[in-house]
Every structure is written in structure tokens, then in C-alpha cells.
Amino acid sequence: MAEETSVPERIVSRQVLAIPQRFSTGPVMGRFLRELRDHKRIMANKCPKCGRHQLPPREVCAVCHVEATGWEELPPEGAIRDFDVVYYASPDPLTGETRQVPYVLCWVDLDGTQGDAPLWHLLNVENLAEVRRGVRVRVVFADERHGTTEDIRHFEIIREEASPGAGTGAES
Amino acid sequence: MSKNRNAAIIGSGMSEFSSHREDVNQPEMIHEAVIEALRDADIALEDVDCLLHGNMELFEMVHQPDMWHVLGDGARGKSGLRLTTGGTTGITLACAADNLVASGLHDVVLAIGFEKLQEGHTTGGITNMADPLWGRSLQTGALTGTGAQKVIDEFGEERAKLAAMKYRTIMDEHAMRNEKAHRRLRLERQYIKETADNSPPLVGELRMIHMCSQSDGACAVVFASEEKVRALGANPAWIVDHETVHREETMVFGSMLSTQRAAAERLFARAGIANPRGDIDVFEMYDPSAWWGVDWLRDFLLLEGDEHLKMIENDEIVLDGPFPVNPSGGVIASNPIGATALVRVAEAAMQVRGTAGAHQVSKPVRRALASGFGGTLWTVLMLLSKEKPERRVNTHG
Lengths: 172, 397
Fold this sequence. Notes:
The complex is a heterodimer of chains A (172) and B (397). Chain A has 172 residues and is mainly beta. Chain A has one helix at residues 26-39; strands at residues 42-46, 53-54, 60-61, 66-67, 70-74, 77-86, 103-110, 119-124, 136-141, 152-157. Chain A has one domain (26-157). Helices cover 8% and strands 30% of the residues of chain A. In chain A, the strands form three sheets. Chain A has a five-stranded mixed barrel with strand order 6-7-8-10-9. The radius of gyration of chain A is 22 Å and the shape is extended. The longest helix of chain B has 19 residues, at 157-175. The mean pLDDT of chain B is 93. In chain B, helix 8 crosses helix 13. Chain B starts with 6 loop residues before the first strand and ends in a 12-residue tail after the last strand.
């Protein structure tokens, strides 16, 4: 019988969980997602007491403890409040795919927003040096929309000089 | 709301913290912390009335891990609760233990926090904190560079970056004196700039060197009533008070409510603390990154302007300084998430009880503060004292 001289092998149990999930969105978030999917409209709701917008909308104003009953469409344009340039190539836990880096996330105050309600999404930008607070951006909607976060493809920087419809070639 | 009697921490234990504890399974790892805590308190399992158990289930994806862990923690046949509040779980366990003992429901409560992050997917688990209806696909775990950007915008790039790396280096100097700490890098002050420049960027100016670790580990803390403290002849760290502040949202990081400042204002007002830096002797802060550590120091201590940067620049927060922060090395050194916030409480209690060994601060400790962080910027604060609190005042609600 062979003598055991080394540490015995520690067996590791390897498992992968994949869980299909199905969340009810409710009437308030449901309306927001429906407007986005069907009409490319960004609808915030509004607290009747303090007047602040909620985006995405929530049933109540958590500050005033009242039902947020009013609805207002916000334009798909605004200014960057905060941003994250992500270099860390994390796997997207929802798909298992490794994300291409670097990519940019931004929080955008859409024009006319009352209170703290920046819209959070990806920013599609080639030159990272262009990403600064206050930069004007617009929403680019996805062609096919299903009532999800991905109905917005990303934000893009608004270029004042570029004439609309001219950009068929490569941008420098 | 008032509390019926005083509660104190009379013992604590921690497993070894490491990136991979593949030498033990979950109940075995927890057992290490439980045994050490019972020995430190000089009690037996029979003396424990109730066990509190907590972690973040989404990391290891084990439903009801408290069932699996019964053989490791001794919970069979005892009263118990399981709590899971994200990153704050550990200190929420401490708050619940205080409530259970101070109310008179139990005399001795054992709180256990653990995580084996290598058995799951940390960024995946944290990503699921995002609202399931909006933004999960955008969430990058707990990584964000907005905290760094905020400090840079306010104080300029050079001063801000130096302060963050000075803070990081001080935390490592502390970790070097704590044999339980996971990451002990032996960083040197003369190479601060090079160390940062050579560290891979994660998000914006948040680099790998600034960020907390992913650790495996467990922590256990014994809470006892005033009567038990007397009967056992224990060395207590009394619980003065605790405070939790939530925010509303799951998806927005903005310049809104500072839960750190709100929690500190409420807790200090109740405890009669007018000058936090003078009235508190040591602070164990849940610092998820060097940038947040720097920024939150100002809010927690109710400071204004650049006072917090000066504290770092002038070495006030070092172990032997006038206001030591994280003598343990903090969360950047060791971060088994479900245990992390309980480790802050345990470390604060060790400083009060004088049992921190090589990382015991040199000044006498009359009061110690511990914080927890979780969810999207929730805060829990707990204040401990050497002196038994005169009366329990709690003006909640």
C-alpha cells in the first residue's frame, strides 16, 4: 500500500445556476415601459406635494409619503450629471457574456426634470476625453423594443455642428 | 421607544480571512469564529439563548444556509433569527442582538455573519441589488468611480489622489498589524504615486489598489445583558445606541441624502456627542474603497470643508494618532461581505475591551464607533463605550 505523503485532494463541487425569471412590473412601471416600447416616450411621474419627478416612476414619493399621481413626458435630451468609465471587464451576470471595455455609464438630467431623477444608461462615445459633466446628450432608442431597459440603446453626445442625417460615414 | 436594560459585547471571534478558504466548508469556517467567540467570552454553548445568522444569499445562492450551518454554529434546539440586509447584514445582526438583549427577551445572544465569496459570483450577486424592472443590465456590481470623481472635483486631482492613496496606505499599515487580515501588502509611503499609477483602473479613477477585497470568512460576537455581565465577571463593551438610515431608491447614485451624515447626526444627538473627534476615541468604518473612506470620513464626523483631508494628510487617523480609523485594516484589507459589518462592531468592541493585541490603539478607548454600508448607500452606526451607559435613551418614532 502506497504511503500518503501529501495533503489529500480537496474535492470542489462545481455548479452553475441558470434561473429564468419573470417579474410583474405593476401599473406604474408598466405604464413607463409601455410608453417607452410603443411610443418612444420617456414618462416620469410627479409628486403632487413636492413636485419632484420620479424617473423611472414609482408608486409613491418616498420623501412625502403620498401617491405620485401626475405624469409628464420628459424630452429625450439633457446633460450628463455623473458618469462612470468602466475598465473592469466583468461578466454580465444576466447573460454570462464578458462585457467589452471600456464602456461608459452616465446619469443624465433630462431637460425640465424637477428634483433628483437622473436617467441612467450607457453612453456611446468613441473618444473618452469627451465625457464630462454637463455635456449634452440625447437618447437613442432601440429599433426593436420589448418594454425593458434595452428599449433605450444608449445615450449619444449631441453635436451642434453636425447636420442631421449627414452621418453615414465614419465619425472621426 | 425605550430600552429595558443595558446590553454589552463580551466576546468575539473571527475565522482566518482569505481569498480562498477551500480547506473548510461553510459550517466548518463558521465553527472557527463561534469557538473563538465562546472562548473569548468564557462561556459555553449552553449559555447561549439565541443565535442570529446572516449573510447575502445571492453570493453563494444557498437558500436557508442557517439550516446547513447548524452543526457548525450549535444552533440546534435554540432560539434563532436569520437576517440579510445586504452589505449592512453584519451590523444589522449586532443591532438585532442589542434589541433582543436590551428588551429582556434573551440574556445571551450569539450573532454570526459569514461569506464565502469564492463559492459564488460577487459582482453577479451585487448586480442583483439593482431594481429588477430597470437597470440590472447596467449595474457593474459595487464598482463606481463617482465617489472618486466627487473628491477630485472638489479638491483637485493631485490632492485628492494623494489623499486616497495615503488613506489606502495607512489601512495597509494597520492590516500589517492584524494577523487575521486578508490583504497585507506592505505598501510603502514613498511609492504612493507609483503604486496607484501601476494599479489597473476599474472604473474612472477607482483602481484595483483602492478597492476592497473579496474574502472568505466568518465573524461571531457574544452579546449579554447587564445581569449576565455581572454574573460572568465579563469584560464588557457596552452598547450605547445604534441607528439605521435607508434611502429610497435601488437604482440611482446621485448627490442626494448622505445616509452617513444623517445617521451620525441622529446618533450623536441622542448620545450627547457634540465633538465627534474628541468624544469618540476610535472608528471602525465600513470603507468599500479608499475613495469612499476619504469622502465618508467628513460626513461621519460631521466635518466641513477639507478637515477630513487634513486628518489624513496629518496622520491623525493612524493607529497611534489622535483619531485612529480602522486599526484592523478595514474593509479594503478584509471583506467577507456578510461578516464585514459585524467585524467592524467586533473590532470596535475589541478596542474598548483592550483585546485587539498588535493592533490595539495606544490611547485609552472610552468610546468606539462602528459603521456598516450596504444596499445603495444605506448606513448603520453603532456606538460602544467602556463606561456602562447611565440610561438608555432612544427617541425613535
